[in-house]
Amino acid sequence: YTEAWDADKKTIHVMPDTPTILLAKANAANVSHKLYVQAWEEAKKKGYDMRADAIPIRSAKASRDIASDYKYKETHEKEKGHYIGCRTAQEDPKLSWAARAMMLQNDRIYRKAYHDSKAQVHIPVDAMSVQAAKECQTLVSDIDYRQYLHQWTCLPDQNDVIHARKAYDLQSDNVYKSDLEWLRGIGWLTEGSVDVVKAKKAQELLNERLYRTRPDEMKFTSITDTPDVVQAKINALQMSDV
Prior knowledge:
This protein is an all-alpha fold. Helix content is 60%, strand content 0%. The longest helix has 13 residues, at 19-31.
């Protein structure tokens, strides 16, 4: 089918001066990177002559010196250690002002007068505030508040004593729980308790294995001569590539 086309491709000849060919050559020259940088490459081969005192060179050197970190800090390094001004730190107003500000902001110096005078307090013993404090101390004192009475002697068979003992026994937590003391230290198995039985019943209800029957466990034998099976065999033979 393509034999004639392949044979015609070899016999076609285009003239080199046709408009299409000339346009393609002009486009190739416009997009050529080699022709684009050809003038720059030829200029580089010719070299250049630039004197050391030329304006661009001197401008570049001045800019470099300005931007240089060494030149920027040269004056500071020379003046370091040559302090010119007051002879002492107390005569310098800035240092004195800084020291004064530090003293005002210092919490220890701020509280120094208070700590020096807080232990030098002298109060007369008959002052009204002291007397009032003593009376308040007497009122709230636990020693003076509790005054134990003398020991009473009661007969053990009095009705009020017997009634009090019964009331104490009813309110006593030890007597109330005395019937459970024999259970302390005895082991107990949870098997058969209400919670365990309830959990087992819930597990049986949620068990997937007991709820569903697996297909491979069901006894089923397919009949080979049913209409559906026969029709499926005929369709398989018709659709078979073999």
